Amino acid sequence: MILKGTKFQIKVWKYLRTIPKGKVKTYKQVAISIKSPKSARAVANACAKNPYAPKIPCHRVIRSDGALGGYSGRGGIKQKIKLLKSEKAAI
After folding, report:
1. What span, in angstroms and rounded, lies between the C-alpha atoms of 43 and 63?
2. What is the pLDDT of residues 35-51, one digit of tens each?
3. Which residue among 43, 46, 58, 62 is the active-site one?
4. Which member of 27, 40, 79, 86 has the greatest number of CB atoms within 10 A?
5. Mapping DSSP to helix (H, G, I), strand (E, B) and coil, where does residue 90 land?
């Protein structure tokens, strides 16, 4: 799959593909994992701009307080919940 976006967005999206089904990570955990520990907000923005959902699983990324955050794919937050439940993620 050829990804089109900024270098940062592509870095985030590539990382998201490594999150296993049924698991969730926070925006901060993703930021740390891509070696940009202070960029949690930018990670959230990259997820919000993800045109490849759900193939690139931004639905597996949540806020640090446990809230789900948003979802850029068709169906919005309801679809995010549905996808996480179908993967048996602990939400």
Report:
1. 11
2. 999 999 999 999 999 99
3. 58
4. 27
5. coil
